[in-house]
Amino acid sequence: MLDISIRLTRANFALELSATFSTSWTVLYGPSGAGKTTLLRAIAGLEKIDRGRIHFAGRPLAKTVCVGYVAQHPSLFPHLNVFENVAFGIPRMQRANQQQRIEEMLSLTGAGHLIGRHVNKLSGGERQRIALARALAPGPSLLLLDEPFSALDIPASDALLNALMRWCAENQVQSILATHDLMDAFALGAQVAVLKDGIIERLGEAGDVLSAERERLMALLGMHAHARKNIGP
Amino acid sequence: MDWQAFFLTFRLASLTTLILLAATIPLAAWLTLSKSRLRPVIESVATLPLVLPPTVLGFFLLVLLGPRTAFGRVLISLVGHPLAFSFSGLLVGSVIYSLPFALQPLLAGFGAVDHALIEVARTLRASPARITLRILLPLARRSLLVAAVLSFLHTVGEFGVVLMLGGDIPGSTRTLSIVLYDQVENFDYAAARQTAGLLLLISLTALLLIHVFGQRKGADNA
Fold first, then answer.
1. Which residues of B touch A91 (CB under 8 A)?
2. Strand pairing of A13-21 and A142-146?
3. CATH of the domain at B118
């Protein structure tokens, strides 16, 4: 269970929220600029917060808790190949176990065939798969995903997400996924947090929380259809 | 050709380069990774030898390393003899004098590494030492080469600090640049041409090394 109560200010932006993410999967839903990435980065320890606390499983989310973070535009180490990139987070593992672990994670993310490849020769989707495998390899207790499948097509994204959900359930990993896609939010979320202008507007079950958003979008679609009809051929 | 001075200069430049790299790699990495507020202060102090006249620096070091200061007395008790007019003193002076030539290329090289890579390494719980060894140094190899070559060449060519701090003691503090000065002073232009030619050759070879080897490393990274 992740318990957050933080305040963070930047030049033209402030993030102020208190929330408890209690389910195994939470979707952070909101438009671009709502603060999803900043929140994930703050949880990952990459953004300094002005005040507040972040607790995981009842204890401060210190460096002792292994947190996996996958950014929207994954940065792979350009001087290392795929194997070495995934191995970076598990340097102390015995060689045979490390090899097995890396193969397992690459297979999970559908990138097993890329193991010896140089990262400069990978597509955007392949890079996202490697970044995910690299974040999973150390066995995180908390997984933070910032629109991690944006470079994949819908079938590939769905297949990868299903495999990831199974793996997280088996390994008792709590996950938070940021998205601006309503379909993703519906498909995934046992719990959805709607983020807007740096605050959590609503938090709860996907169906309840997103119904207002669905109605807003339906109304918007209706307006578009009406406008097109009036313009006519 | 004064081969004794040649080997002394080579030894001094090699040791200075090794000490500088050992000191400046962690310092540059710390300044890059920590975003410390002390950075402008440390950079200013470390760059001071670049703008100070070598004789001024040599004079300060002569006083600092002498028995009249507490620092000098500690050093004398550690080494067993006064550092001024000795090879050890010359080494201390060379390290300080060439410090900016090692630090600045490293800071520039480490600073050019994509910060997102450092953040990824942090989320994978890599220590600063591991980030330095596995990310910063491999991606800033050319800067490391530049730092090493500039430190070496700057030490080979130093004159003012050597003269102030080391004097002109054969086998102990007489470097090639001092030999050249002596040769010109004695109107021995034939010998001076040889010494100056050798110094020119060393500098040119080292700079060629940067351009040829450095470009190849850059191409490897691309």
1. 130
2. unpaired
3. 1.10.3720.10
Mutant choice from B122, B125, B133 vs A, greatest count of A C-beta within 10 A: B125
Those residues whose C-beta lies under 8 Å from the C-beta of residue B1, and which sit 6 or more positions away, are B191, B194, B195, B198
DSSP code per residue over A69-96: EE-SS----TTSBHHHHHHTT-TTS-HH
Q: Are B147 and B106 in contact (CB under 8 A)?
A: yes
Closest CA relative to residue A144, chosen from A133, A135, A134:
A135
| Domain housing A10 | 2-231
In this prediction, residue B67 has a pLDDT band, given cuts at 50, 70 and 90, of confident
The domain total for chain A is: 1
Is B118 within 8 Å of B31 (Cβ atoms)?
no
Residue A67 has its nearest CB partner, among B114, B116, B123, at B123
Q: Which domain holds residue B148?
A: 3-221
* CB spacing of B125 vs A89 below 8 angstroms: yes
C-beta of residue B164 within 8 angstroms of C-beta of residue B55 = yes
Query: What is the rounded radius of gyration, in angstroms, for the C-alpha atoms of chain A?
Result: 19
* pLDDT tens readout for residues A98-127: 999 999 999 999 999 999 899 998 998 999
Q: Which two tokens stand for residue B50?
A: 């670049």
Domain holding A135: CATH number? 3.40.50.300
Cβ <8 Å between A77 and B119? no
In this structure, are residues A195 and A39 in contact, taking their beta carbons and an 8 Å threshold?
yes
Domain count, chain B: 1
CA distance A174 to A162: 15
CB contact under 8 A, B125 and A78: no
Interface membership of A139 toward B (CB under 8 Å): no
Q: What value does the mean pLDDT of chain A take?
A: 87
